[in-house]
């Protein structure tokens, strides 16, 4: 759900040259700016260009703001583990940048995820759980009887079981994370400008200039593409291409005549529909029937998605959901990587100062802490020093070498 900020009066960039220009100032871009500031302490000049300073249409603001470790790809498990570490410690980490006022409390609801699996998918689900546990995750596999005992409101008749992460999974304040990173980045010297990038100058295999919508031309040492669903637009300005496009996702908040007792996790149904509590209400969504690339500015709702697909799935899985009423709905965009649903992180091999931080396919918010730190390491140190994100490199894209993530919601 979007919580828009007031749009400030336009202030042009202070300089005409920056060491790093970041295109996109939402969660990923602001995380990059923050980690650069933490590492370099003013030794690099950083400009963040954000086209929507209200963040009203950003994927960060319109996301469902959740984090999980239940992935099929080990690196994504580790990325989320670092994300949880940051979320839990965020208020203390950001305290120096909020003098005289409380730093953001992200309100982490550590209620877990519950992935339902079919009888045919039980063996694969158990293998994923073992992989996740080998990396330190708290996921457990529950057979149908144990699942019914733990969650008596769940219909398990057609299930082969479910994987449940009772710790280090849940949901949190997305805008609190974004505004904390942004505030920290600015306190550490990053400059933000309310503007759009309309062109890039490329000479001898390097981005040399950034053209802004207001006419300014900025020289840059490194260009970071953190433009979310508009990532391909920015890549094309440098003559590059990535298989990233906006995909619409519809979110619905509803009330139920029958409450769900106990602590309800985020339930992922076989149909792909998810549902979780939001105070006395519930939040739900799915992979919609009209799934596919959308226009960059298309945020039109599809209310029939709830009636036609989501409600039947909810009622089947949770029979208590027999009397529901939608209270609120909104549409956001995933920056979908159509090759393998995984992020693209790293420099381009030919336009050597063009950095990708794109294509996270719906999990960019939860991966923004590790992505920002990894991008900083590549820029400052020339290689990863903490998590090795090299399997997410750009080179796999033209090679058509998928680095798959199957657990995409």
Automatic annotation (TrEMBL):
<dbReference type="InterPro" id="IPR006076">
    <property type="entry name" value="FAD-dep_OxRdtase"/>
</dbReference>
<keyword id="KW-0812">Transmembrane</keyword>
<dbReference type="Pfam" id="PF01266">
    <property type="entry name" value="DAO"/>
</dbReference>
<dbReference type="GO" id="GO:0005737">
    <property type="term" value="C:cytoplasm"/>
</dbReference>
<feature type="transmembrane region" description="Helical">
    <location>
        <begin position="20"/>
        <end position="37"/>
    </location>
</feature>
<dbReference type="GO" id="GO:0032981">
    <property type="term" value="P:mitochondrial respiratory chain complex I assembly"/>
</dbReference>
<protein>
    <submittedName>
        <fullName>FAD-dependent oxidoreductase</fullName>
    </submittedName>
</protein>
<keyword id="KW-0472">Membrane</keyword>
<keyword id="KW-0560">Oxidoreductase</keyword>
<dbReference type="InterPro" id="IPR036188">
    <property type="entry name" value="FAD/NAD-bd_sf"/>
</dbReference>
<dbReference type="GO" id="GO:0016491">
    <property type="term" value="F:oxidoreductase activity"/>
</dbReference>
<keyword id="KW-1133">Transmembrane helix</keyword>
<feature type="domain" description="FAD dependent oxidoreductase">
    <location>
        <begin position="19"/>
        <end position="377"/>
    </location>
</feature>
């Amino acid at each position: 759900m979007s919580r828009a900020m007031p749009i400030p009066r336009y202030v042009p960039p202070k300089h005409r040259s920056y060491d790093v220009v970041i295109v996109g100032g939402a969660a990923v871009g602001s995380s990059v700016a923050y980690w650069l500031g933490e590492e370099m302490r003013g030794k690099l000049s950083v400009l963040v260009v954000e086209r929507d300073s209200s963040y009203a249409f950003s994927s960060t603001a319109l996301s469902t703001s959740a984090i999980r470790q239940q992935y099929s790809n080990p690196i994504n498990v580790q990325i989320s583990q670092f994300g949880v570490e940051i979320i839990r410690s965020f208020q203390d980490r950001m305290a120096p940048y909020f003098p005289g006022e409380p730093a953001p409390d992200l309100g982490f609801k550590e209620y877990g995820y519950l992935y339902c699996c079919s009888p045919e998918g039980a063996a694969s689900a158990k293998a994923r759980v073992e992989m996740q546990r080998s990396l330190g995750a708290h996921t457990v596999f529950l057979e149908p009887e144990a699942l019914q005992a733990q969650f008596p409101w769940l219909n398990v008749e057609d299930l082969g079981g479910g994987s449940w992460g009772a710790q280090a999974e849940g949901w949190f304040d997305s805008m609190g994370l974004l505004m904390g990173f942004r505030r920290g980045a600015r306190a550490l010297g990053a400059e933000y400008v309310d503007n759009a990038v309309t062109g890039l100058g490329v000479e001898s295999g390097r981005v040399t200039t950034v053209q802004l919508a207001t006419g300014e031309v900025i020289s840059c040492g490194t260009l970071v593409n953190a433009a979310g669903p508009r990532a391909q637009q920015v890549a094309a300005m440098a003559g590059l291409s990535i298989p990233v496009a906006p995909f619409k996702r519809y979110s619905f908040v509803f009330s139920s005549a029958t409450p769900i007792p106990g602590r309800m996790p985020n339930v992922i149904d076989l149909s792909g529909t998810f549902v979780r509590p939001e105070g006395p209400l519930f939040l739900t969504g799915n992979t919609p029937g009209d799934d596919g690339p959308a226009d960059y500015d298309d945020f039109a709702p599809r209310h029939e998605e709830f009636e036609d697909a989501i409600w039947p799935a909810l009622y089947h899985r949770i029979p208590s959901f027999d009397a529901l009423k939608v209270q609120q709905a909104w549409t956001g965009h995933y920056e979908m990587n159509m090759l393998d649903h995984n992020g693209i992180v790293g420099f381009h091999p030919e336009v050597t100062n063009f950095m990708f931080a794109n294509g996270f396919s719906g999990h960019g918010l939860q991966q923004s802490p590790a992505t920002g730190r990894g991008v900083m390491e590549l820029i400052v140190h020339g290689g990863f020093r903490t998590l090795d994100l090299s399997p997410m490199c750009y080179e796999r894209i033209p090679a058509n070498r998928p680095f798959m993530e199957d657990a995409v919601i």
